[in-house]
Write a structure and sequence with these properties.
This protein has 132 residues and is an alpha+beta fold. Helix content is 47%, strand content 13%. It has a domain of 79 residues. 19% of the residues are buried.
Length: 132
Amino acid sequence: MAKRKKSTEPKPELAKSKPKEPALSHGAFQLTMWVIILGLVAQLAMALIAYPSLPERIASSWAGRIIPGRTHPAWIVFVFFPGAQVFLLVLALFPRVTNAAGRRVMEIGKAAGLIALALLLTALHSGVFRLQ
């Protein structure tokens, strides 16, 4: 077998790539805030409309039986979902980053996650109308 010639050319250095910086946007911050606030208003309106007509206790698990296995007081409907929405609002209000103009900016991925959670909580809370 023939021997290989050793190359005298220098090997190119592999450039170490820096991790991508997350995309930051003031518009994402504003959109997130509006969606969460509108979701909170909708949840409070739903709770105020539905709460008076709810039974004293609401079934929360059936575990494959006709009779509910566990029940919770009706005020949970009024407090839990809007409370979770307020928690999302607090998370969104205090982003870690501001831009050069001093405006709050948010990562696009974080904004999308918070918007999805806010919409999910509002959709789940709308299920209270099926209990009436």
